[in-house]
Specification:
The protein is mainly β. The protein has two helices and 31 strands. It folds into three domains: 184 residues, Immunoglobulin-like (Sandwich), CATH 2.60.40; 97 residues, Carboxypeptidase-like, regulatory domain (Immunoglobulin-like, Sandwich); 108 residues, Carboxypeptidase-like, regulatory domain (Immunoglobulin-like, Sandwich). Helix content is 4%, strand content 52%. The strands form six sheets. Strands 1, 3, 4, 6, 7, 8, 9, 11 and 12 form a nine-stranded mixed beta sheet that branches. Strands 14, 15, 18, 21 and 22 form a five-stranded mixed beta sheet that branches. Strands 23, 26, 27, 30 and 31 form a five-stranded mixed beta sheet that branches. β7 and β8 form a beta hairpin. The longest helix is centred in the first third of the chain and has 11 residues.
Length: 420
Amino acid sequence: MIKRRNKMKSFMKTFGIISILSVFLLLGCGGGGSNSASSGTTGTLSLSMIDASDESYKAVYVTVKEVAVCQETEDEDPEWRTVATLNKTYNLLTLVNGVTAALGESELEAGTYNQMRLILGNQPDNTTNILGNIHPQSMPQYLIDGNNETHELKVPSGYNSGIKLVHPFEIEDGKTTELILDFDVTRSIHLAGKIEKNGKYILRPTIKIIGTYNRAIVTGMVFNAAYLDQPLPGATVTAWPMGDASLSVSSTQTNQDGAYTLYLGLGENPGQTQDYTLVSTLKGFAPDCEPLTVAADQTYPDTDFGLSNANMVTISGMVTGHIDASALPQGVDAPSIHISFVQDCLTLPVEVSFIDTTDDGNNATTDIFYNSNNGDFQYEYEISVPSGTYDVVASSEGLGNEEISDFNATVSPATLDISF
């Protein structure tokens, strides 16, 4: 029998960062901070986009229609201003390790802006994908898997009006404010069932905004620990902030040379340092960890990792529970469950592997469903993790957390059913 205990409090404080990323369905423009009246002066907003990538896919395409920002005012009337009209399709997997895609520049009235809105398009542009084919006109958001198969990324109806990003920023007279939209592919793609059983990919965008000040830049390599001259492309490097729940998780992927670049925020305290635990993972290898304390506007080169080969264990199971439709976040069609596999790394618990599972919205399979009438759900999942013992945390907004301690994942296949 699997024991459930409250031994993961320190991890849950960190893990909660994921669920409070400032990415919301579009509700409005008001709220928060001090009011700013019109100043009559202008500055420039420069926008670009970068990606925290995932080695599971060859390409992930999203079509961005436009970007708008909201200025704080003294009254309750929202003032949304379009700063970029794009109608352009981007491969997010090309935007890693400091490579960005320019979304445009716009002159704005000086003052405080508290939110940004990203609107996805409903039709791709006419460029070609990595296979040399024109983007499928019926798929504005889609991915190409390791077998060169194309899969639509279904977008929940609640995102049709836009994705609201809460991130106050200042436009100063005569100056340029640069912001980067960090689109985390790994945490944005949720799987409904198993693909080999007609499962579906769901896109629930996870995006954070990075400024060009009050941040640190970390660079390094990921090697095979047995052959230090053998770099490992496609490895993920994730930074877990310690102690400051206002900071979000950051991650990136190594390029073909095994190199990576990672941007880390310092919150609203530019004069202070911030502690991070960096974790590098790659399928077929055990994770490696490094502690790092960073300061604003500093670069930390040669932050390297050596990964050792590991036996992989396949874990599968069912996730069941109940949540009333009224308890779901606004615009969300079905609950999404984040299943996190946690191990101690440098005495601190960190997430080594995870999977997000959900319903596909139309009950395409009989064993994977969310019944909006009675609130029951039943999801199937499968994940490969390095052999070992894990604390497992399953979480979902509106449901809380289900914690499973000391799960033995040393023999493959393993089964782990989770009930909320």
